[in-house]
Amino acid sequence: MGTTRLEAFSDGVIAILITIMVLELHVPHGDTLQALQPMIPTLASYVLSFVYLGIYWNNHHHMLHATHHVDGAILWANLHLLFWLSLVPFTTSWVGENHRAAAPTAVYGVVLFMAAIAYTLLQQRIIARQGKASVLARAVGHDRKGRASLVLYGAAILCAFVNQWISDALYVTVAIIWLVPDPRIERVLDDK
Question: What is the reported pTM?
Answer without folding.
Answer: 0.90
